[in-house]
């Protein structure tokens, strides 16, 4: 289950005010939601790199920390880059449905529509690009933190059946967006602890950029970070 990704267009101008990174329409990342041990065939595929069973949930958020796209169907052992490679959102970017770009970490390949940080920046322009990228992409980390603070079941884990867990995760995303629209805050005293829950400290495997992605990113840096 996922939201209508057409909503991503509302982010075009918002993220430029975070760190002067233009044309961004979303920040993308995955987060692991713990589930009870699956004993059925293929249950071992739910075990992630930290050793517990989980669903690897892909989220795209906007500058207001609203969840604009969510994918909940993948087992915990699946890498973030595969989830994006096989999702409908990627297909829509490939088809030209959006004119802006997504920002992701080095666990994703750099493509003409998904920019990642430079592994070894060597010029002042590249360093400015990386700093701006990190600050802007951090919105998805903050989104995870706020989302999990609002719905502690996302922190503790889901202990019903897998299909119910997937539906519950999506429901929590919908309610999270409603809370933002209604300006509902988390409980007093909890906002200070949001960052520690922002995402799992898992080091992503570096994914080499595609040739087209590398060229497009280079052109972008030369145009916007001189």
Automatic annotation (TrEMBL):
Belongs to the HARBI1 family. It comes from the Eukaryota. The keyword Nuclease applies. GO terms for molecular function: hydrolase activity; metal ion binding; nuclease activity. The keyword Metal-binding applies. Keywords: Hydrolase, Metal-binding, Nuclease, Nucleus. Its main location: nucleus. Its cofactor is a divalent metal cation. This is DDE Tnp4 domain-containing protein. One of its GO terms (cellular component) is nucleus. PANTHER family: DDE TNP4 DOMAIN-CONTAINING PROTEIN-RELATED, PTHR22930. It is found in: Nucleus. Residues 28-177 form the DDE Tnp4 domain.
């Amino acid at each position: 289950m996922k939201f209508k990704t057409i909503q991503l267009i509302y982010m075009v101008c918002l993220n430029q005010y975070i760190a002067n990174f233009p044309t961004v329409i979303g920040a993308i990342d995955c987060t692991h939601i713990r589930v009870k041990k699956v004993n059925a065939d293929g249950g071992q595929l739910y075990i992630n790199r930290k050793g517990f069973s989980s669903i690897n949930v892909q989220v795209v958020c906007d500058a207001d920390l609203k969840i604009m796209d969510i994918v909940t169907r993948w087992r915990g052992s699946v890498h973030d880059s595969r989830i994006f490679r096989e999702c409908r959102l990627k297909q829509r970017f490939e088809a030209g449905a959006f004119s802006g770009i997504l920002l992701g970490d080095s666990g994703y390949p750099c493509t003409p529509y998904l920019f990642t940080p430079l592994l070894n920046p060597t010029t002042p322009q590249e360093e400015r690009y990386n700093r701006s990228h990190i600050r802007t992409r951090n919105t998805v980390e903050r989104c995870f933190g706020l989302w999990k603070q609002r719905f502690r079941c996302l922190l503790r884990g889901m202990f019903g059946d897998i299909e119910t867990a997937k539906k519950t995760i999506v429901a929590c995303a919908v309610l999270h967006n409603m809370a933002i629209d209604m300006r509902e805050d988390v409980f007093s005293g909890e906002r200070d602890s949001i960052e520690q829950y922002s995402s799992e400290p898992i080091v992503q495997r570096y994914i080499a950029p595609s040739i087209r992605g590398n060229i497009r990113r280079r052109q972008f840096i030369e145009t916007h970070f001189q």
